[in-house]
């Protein structure tokens, strides 16, 4: 049943049911200091709900943008209409982290773009989107841990890589369900791939070439973030970042070899645990 406030949809009406355990990469895992987990989970719940709003295929564009605006005003304290945004604001104020609200506001900019934009002309345009959709997540976690903002460039590279990996994994679903294509248009056009290729059950050769090109660019991002884990002061966070880096490297390699339209390009639990163990050990004993 849809939930409305004064005859207007709110974010709770558009929840997907997806939770932090359904994400491709760890979210506030047991590796994170228990002191920080509730703060990070409050941020996650806010981001998850905003993402659900942006990706909803039933609500109108006008309604989705209105809900995202309500989330913004609730986060800044101008209103109390969206509970998850209010909870996040109160959590941050309680912990002396109200200056990090900017990261939530940046995420909302990305979700507004998701409602209004369904194509990206080139890699630079996609990177600008990721500046708002991906980088703020890691920046927030670093700020919660009181890490140096000098780490932001490596954080941004890793978070952007994770975002592009997700785009490539879900490229068929995003096109079929939302007519949204994140693979840059110039990369598609350069190899003769078309939007229609994304609607097939198997990727065409041109589409495979476009995906591989994007994956190779993602590898370059991961090279830039390779020293991120070791530079983090908090050892528990450093281990988590090492695990995420290793999982991302493995998935990127998979995307250069496998067809995400017809093959599994996600890790199962055994693969995830194996990669995580190696990465964690490397960080702990480095």
Automatic annotation (TrEMBL):
| Gene3D superfamilies the UniProt entry points to | Farnesyl Diphosphate Synthase
| CDD domains for the chain | Trans_IPPS_HH
User: What is an example of a Pfam family matching this protein?
Assistant: SQS_PSY
What biological processes does GO assign it? Answer: terpenoid biosynthetic process
Matching InterPro entries, A to Z?
HSQ_synthase_HpnC, Isoprenoid_synthase_dom_sf, Squ/phyt_synthse, Trans_IPPS_HH
Q: Which organism is it from?
A: Zymomonas mobilis subsp. mobilis (strain ATCC 10988 / DSM 424 / LMG 404 / NCIMB 8938 / NRRL B-806 / ZM1)
GO molecular-function terms, A-Z: geranylgeranyl diphosphate synthase activity; squalene synthase [NAD(P)H] activity
Q: What is this protein called?
A: Squalene synthase HpnC
